[in-house]
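Input/output pair, single chain:
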Amino acid sequence: MIRCPLLLSKFLPSHKSVLPSLSMCQGWYNTRRNIHEDVIQKDYPYFFRVLESLPKNRSLAFAYGSGVFKQAGKAWTKNSMSDFIIATPDPVTWHAQNLEINPHHYPTTIRLLGPKFISYLQTNFGAKIYFNTLIPFEDGLIKYGVISTSDLMADLENWTTLYVSGRLHKPVNILEQDQSLPELRLGLASNLTSALHASLLGLPEKFTPEELYLQLAGLSYSGDLRMLVGEDKNKVQNIVSAQMSLFEGLYDKRLKALFSDSVHFHNGTYTQDKSDSSKLHHLQNLPSSLIELMLGKSKSAVIEGLLASENEVLNKSSASGDLDPKLQEVLRESISTIVQRSSTPQALKGIISAGPYKAAIYSSAKLKKMMKSLK
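Output:
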């Protein structure tokens, strides 16, 4: 039986809520019923049983990835892994409790080093997230990452790593959210808005919904070491082509509400305002980490405009004829820098957190997917 998560709120504490709207649940149901009838997929009760097996001190929990959402060219199997990310306000206590409940989730050496070391490894290296992977759970496999609530908030608002925030640019199943943290709700919303600003800057005047979703989904993969070695080369296309309705549910209303004056949809095509003032508006609403990098990579009028008044910038650009002919290149390079400097050490950290045996198995599976995509 297919269950919408809204119907499962009785399983959660009163200060938690299950977030997907009825329309999102309908989209999930239609995807299951109409498009992939022959596929048996893990359902919401399974996801909640996973959460119930882990410590409770969670501010956010969501499921994501190819084991949760269908990707083009991939079939779910018994060995498909369901991925989760959990935010907690107190990583040391969370890992201490998890070591008691689920010691087998951690490699022996990591267990011996204890929760303080695990928390230190989590919060001080890579993308500030710690993963336990290839964990048997019932008849499947799970992987879950743990991030502190404060590090999550910084990434959502400022794109400090674009690791978890980038994952949230794509459809996910948000299972729990602490409603006593309004700043978390605002951070989740601002992350999606920032993604739209960055994507619109990178798109031409006319584009299709699929081109928009490809731009949005690809932001956090730009510069990722795993896309060079160990990932399906068609990953972004596979995500978008199988989840068009879910991307629409995530972004369509937001696009219409926030960009109604500058983006218009007609006959299956978006048309956006590409004037200097519109570009400037997008730039001034990018996350702070991205702005700082762009300032360091370009000294043109449009980048200087991030720290100047609109009239001053437009006067400068009128004299030069264009705000910045290399704007898209500077934007792309800056996003890639954020992703690369967090994803590369995160990949190395994954070898430690998984242990050599699991790391070898996980890497082998990734390489097989990459080689298959190259054929």
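The beta strands are 16-17, 60-64, 81-88, 129-137, 140-148, 173-178, 206-207, 263-266, 269-272. The CA atoms of residues 61 and 86 lie 4 Å apart.
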